[in-house]
């Protein structure tokens, strides 16, 4: 064992002997110059040995840090029987408990630490010096998890220069393909951390690397998808071939699609599915099909995105295109380049007319290109628009994935209902409207088959409060009625389920939640048979009784919310009414003492003041009465449907008008007083007067809009939708 690997005890002993020799040399220093030279040499040796001992100590300390936890146990399973790990000191003594094999491995790993540190830092000069002295370290397992220096370098996302230099020292392709104990090659490590440059260098050195699977059957492409490395996954997809055993078939292929869907790489998943459509019928290791995985991701679909008003406008305007499949491309190409038979049969069309058609088509193409170019420029300038574009692209990709997979299931020999039932009801619970529609169009009779809890499509839609899915009942007659008549194990019909409370995070305020619950109950009431309205379940409860019991707490919360809001607004309305009433009798500029006529009566600014003051008084009084009506309401369930929201809407609107009118009256009053002295004061007064009005609008206007749309807006249940074609 060299000095770098010597135990600490031996080093301390050597240090002690050297110290005693040094004392002897100091005693006889004056007698001989040769002895002085020997003393100097010994001091140099002492310093070097102390430095080596210190380095060994640090290396061992660092290695012990690596060995903590289960890493050493996995390497040496017998240690688990011999040691009862309970703290840092016991972890440090694992080497002693592990016996000679563990101790020998520990010393080896200690000697590898300089190379390990050089690899994680990307220090090629240090690594080169070490490898020149010990070339065998190039393929040695330098970590407790059996990683080579190449695997360490690529897994730390080091500069490509370091990896390239390492590969230059490896003449054999087998060295590059060396795997760890779990079967991962250097390319697997690069895929896991997203080191695309290193992956390119590795594949260039050994083109077979993308096909090598680890102990779990995963290729580097699988690892890149699993760990969310999109750029690396795209590259590996281009270099991974369909050689037997193919990574694009069977359970392994389904696992790849699952990883891509979970990582939100829907474009890559769509490209693979087009090349290997049979993957839609496969299941991964968890017995989940790609459709099952997709049905569990509501945010990947348009129905799961909750965009603001302006975001929705941009969403509908922004152009988004995804790659079509070959058949669609060829069809589009045929339409553009070659006229169809039907167009040529129209012999009445002259050559001039066809020429005009071509000119029109050319201008249409140019217009589309200009439109796309404009949006690309806007996206680069406004990051938010880029996010909306990416969201719309994702929505189109996921919908196309669903269409491709359902079409493949329909054309296969699989039991369509059995295969689609699980993702169908998962999507129903998640509220993925477009997913549900595609499956119904593929397999219309699937709604006849309930889920494992004996719930049908419409029962789940009611339970989870998904309006668009429930609205499909208006497009289906016999099948829908059959599904609506289903009862669960407690004999609850559809109206009983509508009476159950469903907490909602999308609606603000308990009062609005109560209103939405009433809207649901009344809508479902229209769809069930009259006899079902009084039917009792296993607990001897009618739907109305269930609704009252389930919503008692929400009614109480709604009452508190309404009273708190009304009390605050009543205070503001009272103050405004008091101020503007007093202002009517203390007009700006004063009155004629003889007749009581205001001095500035004939000025237009005074007319503005008078009108604004009157409007503020009338609107604040109206607002005050509305909020008093809310405070004195009896707060029954039915009051939350129309009465209370209507009063709140009128109260908030009139309060807003009174605040705006009061500020106009105040600005006009100041202008009348100061116009002869400070003419420039009109502009800042107008700007400052807008501030409180703007603040009120920003704070309360969203609530007002939400209440108004919920009460008087378009029905949340879309009766006229024509999504179902089957």
TrEMBL record:
Keywords: ANK repeat, Membrane, Transmembrane, Transmembrane helix. Residues 559-673 form the PGG domain. Residues 17-34, 339-348 have a biased composition (Polar residues). Residues 1-61, 329-348 are annotated as: Disordered. The keyword Transmembrane helix applies. The chain crosses the membrane at residues 256-273, 566-586, 606-628, 648-674, 680-709. PROSITE patterns: ANK_REP_REGION (PS50297), ANK_REPEAT (PS50088). One of its GO terms (cellular component) is membrane. ANK repeats lie at residues 216-242. Residues 38-61 have a biased composition (Basic and acidic residues). It holds the Pfam family PGG. This is PGG domain-containing protein. It comes from Liquidambar formosana (Formosan gum).
């Amino acid at each position: 064992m060299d000095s770098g690997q010597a135990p600490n005890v031996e080093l301390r002993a050597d240090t002690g002997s050297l110290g005693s020799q040094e004392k002897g040399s100091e005693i006889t220093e004056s007698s001989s110059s040769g002895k002085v030279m020997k003393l100097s040499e010994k001091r140099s040796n002492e310093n070097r040995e102390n430095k080596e001992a210190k380095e060994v100590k640090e290396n061992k300390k660092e290695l012990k840090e690596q060995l903590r936890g289960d890493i050493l146990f996995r390497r040496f399973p017998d240690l688990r029987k011999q040691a009862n790990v309970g703290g840092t000191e016991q972890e440090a003594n694992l080497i002693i408990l592990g016996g000679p094999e563990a101790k020998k491995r520990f010393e080896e790993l200690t000697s590898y630490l300089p190379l390990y540190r050089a690899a994680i830092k990307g220090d090629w000069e240090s690594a080169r010096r070490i490898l020149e002295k010990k070339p065998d370290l190039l393929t040695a397992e330098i970590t407790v998890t059996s990683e080579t220096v190449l695997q360490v370098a690529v897994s730390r996302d080091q500069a490509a220069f370091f990896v390239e230099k390492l590969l230059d020292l490896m003449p054999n392709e087998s060295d590059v393909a060396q795997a760890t104990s779990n079967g991962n090659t250097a390319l697997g490590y690069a895929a896991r951390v997203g080191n695309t440059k290193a992956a390119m260098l590795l594949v260039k050195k050994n083109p077979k690397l993308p096909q090598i699977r680890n102990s779990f059957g995963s290729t580097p492409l699988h690892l890149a998808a699993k760990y969310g490395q999109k750029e690396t996954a795209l590259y590996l997809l281009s270099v991974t071939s369909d050689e037997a055993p193919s990574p694009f078939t069977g359970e392994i292929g389904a696992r790849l699609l699952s990883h891509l869907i979970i990582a939100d790489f829907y474009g890559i998943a769509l490209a693979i599915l087009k090349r290997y459509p049979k993957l839609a019928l496969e299941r991964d290791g968890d017995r989940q099909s790609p459709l099952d995985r997709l049905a569990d991701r509501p945010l990947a679909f348009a129905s799961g995105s909750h965009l603001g008003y302006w975001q929705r406008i941009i969403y509908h305007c922004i152009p988004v295109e995804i790659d079509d499949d070959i058949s669609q491309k060829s069809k589009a190409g045929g339409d553009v380049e070659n006229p169809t038979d039907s167009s040529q049969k129209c012999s009445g069309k002259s050559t001039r007319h066809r020429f005009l058609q071509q000119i029109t088509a050319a201008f249409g193409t140019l217009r589309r290109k200009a439109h796309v170019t404009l949006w690309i420029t806007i996206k680069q300038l406004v990051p938010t628009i880029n996010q909306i574009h990416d969201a719309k692209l994702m929505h189109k990709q996921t919908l196309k994935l669903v269409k491709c997979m359902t079409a493949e299931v329909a054309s296969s020999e699989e039991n369509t209902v059995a295969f689609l039932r699980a993702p169908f009801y998962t999507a129903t619970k998640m509220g993925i409207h477009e997913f549900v529609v595609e499956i119904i169009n593929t397999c219309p009779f699937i709604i006849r088959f309930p889920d494992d809890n004996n719930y049908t499509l419409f029962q789940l839609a009611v339970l989870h409060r998904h309006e668009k899915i429930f609205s499909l009942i208006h497009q289906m007659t016999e099948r829908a009625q059959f599904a609506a008549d289903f009862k669960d194990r407690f004999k609850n019909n559809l109206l009983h389920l509508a009476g159950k409370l469903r907490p909602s995070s999308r609606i603000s305020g308990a009062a609005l939640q109560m209103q939405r619950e009433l809207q649901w109950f009344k809508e479902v009431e229209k769809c069930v048979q009259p006899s079902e309205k009084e039917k009792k379940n296993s607990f001897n409860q009618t739907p109305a009784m269930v609704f009252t019991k389930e919503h008692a707490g929400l009614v109480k919360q709604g009452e508190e919310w309404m009273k708190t809001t009304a009390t605050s607004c009543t205070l503001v309305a009272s103050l405004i009414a008091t101020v503007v009433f007093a202002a009517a009798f203390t007009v700006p500029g004063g009155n004629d003492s003889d007749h009581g006529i205001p001095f500035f009566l004939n000025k237009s600014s005074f007319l503005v003041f008078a009108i604004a003051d009157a409007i503020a008084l009338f609107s604040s009084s109206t607002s005050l009465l509305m909020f008093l009506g809310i405070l004195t309401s009896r707060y029954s369930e039915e009051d939350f449907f129309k009465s209370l929201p209507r009063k709140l809407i009128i109260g908030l609107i009139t309060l807003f008008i009174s605040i705006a009118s009061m500020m106009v009256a105040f600005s006009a009053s100041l202008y009348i007083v100061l116009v002869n002295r400070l003419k420039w004061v009109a502009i800042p007064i107008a700007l400052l007067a807008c501030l409180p009005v703007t603040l009120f609008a920003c704070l309360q206007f969203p609530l007002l809009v939400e209440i108004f749309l919920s009460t008087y807006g378009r029905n949340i249940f879309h009766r006229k939708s024509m999504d179902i074609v089957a």
